[in-house]
Amino acid sequence: MTARVRALLEHLRTHAAAYLVLAVALSAAMAVRMYVASAIAHQVRSRFDERVTAAVEAVRDRMDAYVATLRATRGLFVSGRRPSREEFRLFVQNLRLERHYPGIQGIGFAELLAPQEVARHEEAVRREGFPGYSLWPGGGREAYTAIVYLEPFDARNQRAFGFDMLSEPTRREAMLRALATGKAACSARVELVQETDQDRQPGFLIYLPVSASARGGLEQRTGGFVYAPFRAGDLFAATLPPESLAEIHLDLLDGPSGDPAQLLYASAAPAGGTLEAVRGLTVAGRPWTVRFRSSPGFVAPWERWLPRWAALAGVIVSLLLFQVTRREVRGAAEARRSAERASFLAEAGRALSSSLDYVTTLAEVARRAAEGPCDWCVILVVEPGGPVRLVGHRDPALARATGQALVEVTLDPEARFAAAAAIQSSEPFVTDAVSEADLARVARDAEHLARLRATGVRALATVPLRARGEALGAISFASTTRRRLDASDVRLMQDLARLAVAAIDTARLYRRAQEAVKLRDEFLSIASHELKTPLTSLALQADSLRQAAVRGFVPEPLAHKTEVIRRNVERLSRLITNLLDISRIGEGRLAIELEPVDLSDVVCEVAGRFEDELARAGSTLQLDVPGPVVGRWDRLRLDQVVTNLVANAVKYGPGKPIAVALRVDGDRVALTVRDQGIGIPREAQQRIFERFERAVSDRHFGGFGLGLWIARRIVEALGGTIAVESEPGQGATFTVELRRAPPPEPPAAPAPGAPL
Fold first, then answer.
1. pLDDT tens per residue, range 298-342
2. What are the residue boundaries of the Histidine kinase domain, all occurrences included (predicted)?
3. String of b and e for 631-669 (b: at least 16 CB within 10 Å)?
4. What is the CATH number for 387?
5. Which distant-in-sequence residues (6+ apart) come within 8 Å of 611 by Cβ?
């Protein structure tokens, strides 16, 4: 390989990025040129299509207006009465055709005649002041039409006076179509009889039937047609002014095929452009074809040149980019490095939030850090039983062999790059160059020094881990290359430290919360048991006093107080039972004893217990129980569920009726408790089934917010569901659905200390 070739290859290698940028920039310039050309082409096409649409709509609107005029004219012939010639003339004169309907040749009426009526008709017209009148052309036909009115009755229109349009096939087809449909019908291309030798134009006619009788064949019909003849050139020159199509050539042809021989109108603009469009148009049942083609001047000069200007600008920009490529490459490298660090932090955050076992997650973060922003990562976590040491390196074997030596150095408070120093000062420590002398100074012995050398560490940085003023540990990054650990590395480590601190602090707080929950459940269990014993004795004494009051052994004032004591003892008993259930559920000891149970009997028994309380609240309880509803359930727990639901209904709907119903659907049973109380907001309807949750303030309604939670756990333990439907101010309906035979193994309650 010659020196010149080597020099060329070296040049290409050094400037590869620059040439790549140039190639990409030139490609982008060409792409921009193509895009600009495409955008301009689209803009030009859109402008062309807008004008095409405007022209078609203008023709359609104008022809619709003419048809509407014919309908108005037909109104003169109502009830079979034909207006006089003077009335017809005045009507058309008031329309001001030349001003409001340019292009129309006139408006006329052609009378439909049977052969035996022709002579009478000619005689009648002659008596009106037209002695030379006769229907033409002559000849025998099954029916005739005679143009008797045609206004304005000028010299050109007088040429059509008395003409039988049924005698000409094109006109005849349109007239028969109008009679058959009862609607306006446009003829094919014709030459009007009004044409003279000068300025001859193609034309067409539109017919609208006026039938006094529509029975029988053509020769038996009476009435006629109001119609309008059109000279196409005059009509479309007025409808489509030249300035509206100055740069577009238009050909309007009769029929759907666009046969050039059926040309009705051609605009004056030249047709040398590249844009074309064909549109269909239906006028009074007759299809027309409209062809458009742009003229050479439709595309403006700047629209033709702009793509070239864009390409030239692109080339200039490409050359400028080529000159500044080295700086751009450096910036791109830095941006890539920032993106990698952001990605690393995102992955670290996901790893740290994936588990509360922060030792495992921090070990994973140390390994990922060693594969990315650094070569070695050492994480130290201060624990009461001694520090936790986590080492990460992309080579696990090397980490196991020599990583401990690096950990010992970071723990050495005498080393100027030690983690202990960073923890004590709460400031990051950065050592740009770890020398051989540094390693020798901190090594305990020759074997330790050898292992330190094997790590290859050349630079090291450490940041502390602190939360709420408490030292949690430190993170150290080590580099085995000559690359300096700069401020960006320290910022990355500080961001990582914040994530690690959050993970450690959250895990420790969670652990403390679990311990507090365990202590609370233990307290509730002990307190419930301790309260239950004296309360049982108190309940027995209250029942004894109540029975004595019933027998009359107790004075009336004392009897009332005895009843108050009994109610409060029952209420306190329910609260203690709820507290005991909390403890049992929390410890997974909610016992479910399945046996044949009649749910109807349970509901009726609960209703009986609430008679006094319902009377005091001024509420009524309506039961809808179909009969025995037997299933394998826990009678005591079902009684607890029904009691809680009815107690809530009485509490939140005093003075309002309460309805309890049972419904059976095959193997499933539904219990509903409906009240007309204060209702429950929609946002609280899921929350009320949680522990210590309430939908209203405890300042207005007593209770701990435990009843519905306990009911839900019991129902779920029986393999069922509980739900509520409610609107504020409209009461609430609680529905419990159970299977007659619950699953063999009811769902387990949460483990002790599970989060709430």
1. 888 888 788 888 888 888 887 888 788 767 656 665 777 778 778
2. 526-742
3. bebbbebbbbbbbbbbbbbbbbbeebebbbbbeeeeeeb
4. 3.30.450.40
5. none
From CA 59, how far away is CA 239, in angstroms rounded? Answer: 6
Regarding whether 225 and 117 lie in a shared domain, the answer is yes
Tell me the residue type at 750: P
d(CA 387, CA 383): 5
What's the whole-model pTM score? 0.44
Peptide bond between residue 83 and the one before it cis (omega within 30 degrees of 0): no
Q: Given CA atoms 304, 308, 313, 318 in this order, what sign does their dihedral have?
A: positive
**16 domain-assigned:** no
Closest C-alpha among 173, 273, 214, 206 to residue 80: 214
- Tokens 């994530």 locate to 499
Contact 370, 393 (CB under 8 A): yes
Rounded distance between C-alpha atoms, residue 443 and residue 581, angstroms: 62
**Residue finishing a domain among 529, 546, 575:** 575
Calpha distance 420→411 (Å, rounded): 6
Taking Cα atoms as reference points, which of 274, 310, 316 lies closest to residue 292? 274
* Residues 428 and 391 grouped into a single domain: yes
User: Which residue, among 494, 372, 343, 483, has the nearest Cα to 422 in the 3D structure?
Assistant: 494
Q: Distance between CA atoms of 187 and 445, rounded to whole angstroms?
A: 115
564 and 619 inside one domain = no
Provide the greatest CA pair distance for the chain: 145
Q: Could you give the C-alpha distances from 175 to 179, 256, 351, 394, 646, in angstroms and in order?
A: 6, 20, 86, 95, 85
Residues 520 and 665 in one domain: no
What is the Cα–Cα distance from 729 to 645, expressed in whole angstroms?
18
Whether residue 61 is found in the same domain as residue 96: yes
- What range defines the domain where residue 726 resides? 588-739
377 strand-pairing partners: 392, 477
The CA distances from residue 317 to 303, 329, 613, in Å, are: 22, 17, 89
**Count of other CB atoms within 10 angstroms of residue 235:** 25
What would you report as the CA-atom Rg of the chain, rounded to the nearest whole angstrom? 51
Inter-residue contact 286 to 1 (CB < 8 Å)? no
Eight-state DSSP code of residue 333: H
The predicted pLDDT at position 753 comes to 39
Distance of CA 348 to the CA centre of its chain: 32
What is the edge-to-edge ordering of all strands in the sheet holding 470-479? 388-393, 376-381, 470-479, 459-467, 429-431
* pLDDT tens digit sequence for 414-436: 555 556 666 667 777 777 777 67
For the chain, report the end-to-end CA distance as a whole number of angstroms.
Answer: 77
- Pairing verdict, β 203-213 and 286-294: unpaired
Instruction: Measure the CA–CA gap between 606 and 639, rounded to whole angstroms.
Output: 7
Residues 756, 691 contacting (CB under 8 angstroms):
yes
Q: Are 233 and 124 in the same domain?
A: yes
Query: Does 651 lie in the same domain as 560?
Result: no
Give tens-digit pLDDT for 562-607: 766 766 676 666 666 666 666 556 555 567 889 999 999 999 999 9
Q: What is the CATH number for 209?
A: 3.30.450.350
Q: CB under 8 Å to 733, separation ≥6 — which residues?
A: 672, 673, 674, 675, 724, 725, 726
Instruction: Give the single-character DSSP code of 627.
Output: S
| Surface-to-core class of residue 451, CB atoms within 10 Å of its CB (0-12 exposed, 13-18 middle, 19+ buried) | middle
Number of domains in the chain: 4
Same domain, 440 and 550: no
CB burial class (10 A; 0-12, 13-18, 19+) of residue 753? Answer: middle
Instruction: Copy the structure tokens of residue 319.
Output: 């050359």
Q: Which residues pair with 596 in a beta bridge?
A: 632
